[in-house]
Automatic annotation (TrEMBL), chains A, B:
It comes from Virgibacillus massiliensis. Its cofactor is Mg(2+). This is fructokinase. It catalyses: D-fructose + ATP = D-fructose 6-phosphate + ADP + H(+). Belongs to the ROK (NagC/XylR) family. Transmembrane segments: none annotated. Its EC number is 2.7.1.4. It is an enzyme of class 2 (transferase). Gene3D superfamilies: 3.30.420.40. PANTHER family: FRUCTOKINASE, TRANSCRIPTIONAL REPRESSOR MPRA. One of its GO terms (molecular function) is ATP binding. Keywords: ATP-binding, Carbohydrate metabolism, Kinase, Magnesium, Metal-binding, Nucleotide-binding, Transferase, Zinc.
Length: 284, 284
């Protein structure tokens, strides 16, 4: 039987129908507008298929504490209309199949774990570097969750001594996201990140920060593989620069084998999130 | 039936015999000398009891990757005679009961989780700040382990702009352990940490670093509770200073309830490690 998946983003929703093998049968993308209008499009889309369940990889932060009264609610998003929106309860009114909710980054991690570059690994961390920075983690086939879900993008790292930029995180200023997200790059240099390709110093600094983040995640979680995606990573030279800083700063403290294997790009051509959302329904 | 526990430290070994309830029947402490002499004392001690298993919370780093050929081996410790010593294989020759090996900090976390301050929590992080800095994590009754065990003490954090100390970590210089361990304090101020009690600035800076570390661990693992122990935390005023910095730097980004409950001292009077070692044999 077919399974539904939703990659619920702040800008766009991707809905798809697929199989447990990772094969996508059909897929549609539409802009995220009001919750009501968006969920109607979700319902209309899935009504044409006979599906057993829907997995949702959601933007957030979203309350994933099952003991919480606001379980399934989108919390402090900049998107006014979605703030405090009880996504899970609303979805239950629009569709009548079992729902499996997780973060967008956990879904992406699960996608690469089941169908992508981490298929042979016991665990993998998936980091996205785009409008924000976030990370999801899968171990032994299960997405990681603590009391609520991690918020790895906001960790503190060592600022570069030559970097006088104050950071743009509204909560922390110079946390990782405040220093290294796409909008942080844009604010620091006064130009969109995609227009800075030829400026080596931009990507050196970016790699310095991302390498530190990966070091911290590695020292805390000890994952078998780290996958980095998101708009900013379209600057492919970043991968090698990150590996270089990682190697220099970590100084072989932990045995990780070949860094070309340890720190890699996703391999599912931007379908890791939606494939992972479908895979959420098969978890455990 | 009784169970054995070993808190295997670089300075001393604690061996004890106890029950699943957390009750300790008998306990002995002796200095860590050569591996052979030390393990003989371990064998002699346990030979007087009829025990079903022994749990070992070991100093390290120790290889805990069950797929590794050096599983159970102490890795790059400063203690020459113990470097590359295959603790688990050697122990098997000295005692004939099943052995359960984990890190000292994971054992301490498990001790507080089962018998101490975190008894009602689903997860807890235990940090020790002493000669080194390390942390262990328990979730749903199981100690956390990745590819190998975490090395959380060596994460990168933001250096204080007034701190010109280069850090003392042989691998990373100014990582957390390099900046905030007991020996780091001693090196920075030219005096043992225990003799600096009246110097407020010492504990302000220490709290600034430890708060950042707890922020990072919290954003990655999302634990229900964070327990901090170790020699340096004998400066009890540190707890409130850490909470203050944590609150200021985290800026309510994650909902954690009362910080007095979230960031606490251990409650097992230095027996968290040995009780946790015994508890390792009951895990899962
Ligand atoms: N080719 C590129 N090089 C560098 N940065 C890029 C590139 N393309 C997009 N970005 C940056 O990535 C961010 C958008 O990230 P993306 O992952 O596409 O979206 P989102 O995070 O909103 O899902 C923007 O800040 C943009 O400037
Ligand atoms: N009362 C104290 N105040 C501050 N620091 C202390 C105190 N007692 C011990 N220390 C420091 O703690 C470190 C030893 O930590 P401890 O946890 O006792 O041992 P270990 O980490 O070797 O197991 C030393 O660096 C010592 O200076
Ligand atoms: Zn932030
Ligand atoms: Zn270090």
């Amino acid at each position: 039987m077919l399974t539904g998946g939703i990659e619920a983003g702040g800008t766009k929703f991707v809905c798809a129908v697929g199989k447990g093998s990772g094969e996508i049968i059909d897929k549609v993308t539409f802009p995220t507008t009001t919750p009501d209008e968006t969920l109607r499009r979700v319902r209309d889309y899935f009504s044409e298929f006979s599906i057993r369940a829907i997995g949702i990889g959601s933007f957030g932060p979203v309350d994933l504490d099952k003991k919480s009264t606001s379980y399934g609610t989108i919390l402090h998003t900049p998107k006014q209309q979605w703030r405090q929106f009880d996504l899970l309860t609303a979805m239950k009114e629009y569709v009548q199949v079992p729902l499996f909710l997780d973060t967008d980054v956990n879904a992406a991690a699960l996608g690469e774990y089941k169908y992508g570059v981490a298929q042979k690994d016991q665990s993998c961390l998936y980091i996205t570097v785009g409008t924000g920075i976030g990370a999801g983690f899968v171990k032994d086939g299960v997405t990681y969750q603590g009391k609520s879900h991690p918020e790895m993008g906001h960790i503190m790292i060592q600022k570069h001594t030559d970097d006088y930029f104050a950071g743009i995180c509204p909560s922390h200023g110079a946390c990782l996201e405040g220093l290294a997200s796409g909008p942080a790059i844009e604010k620091r240099y006064g130009k969109k990140a995609e227009l800075l390709a030829s400026h080596k110093e931009v990507w050196e600094l970016e790699a310095f920060y991302l390498a530190q983040a990966i070091i911290n995640y590695t020292l805390v979680l000890s994952p078998e593989r780290v996958i980095i995606g998101g708009g900013v990573m379209k600057q492919h030279e970043l991968y090698q620069r990150i590996r270089n800083y990682f190697s220099q700063l970590m100084n072989n403290y932990v045995e990780l084998g070949n860094l070309e294997d340890f720190i890699t790009a996703p391999t599912l051509s931007d379908e890791q999130g939606i494939k992972g959302a479908i895979a959420l329904t098969y978890m455990e």
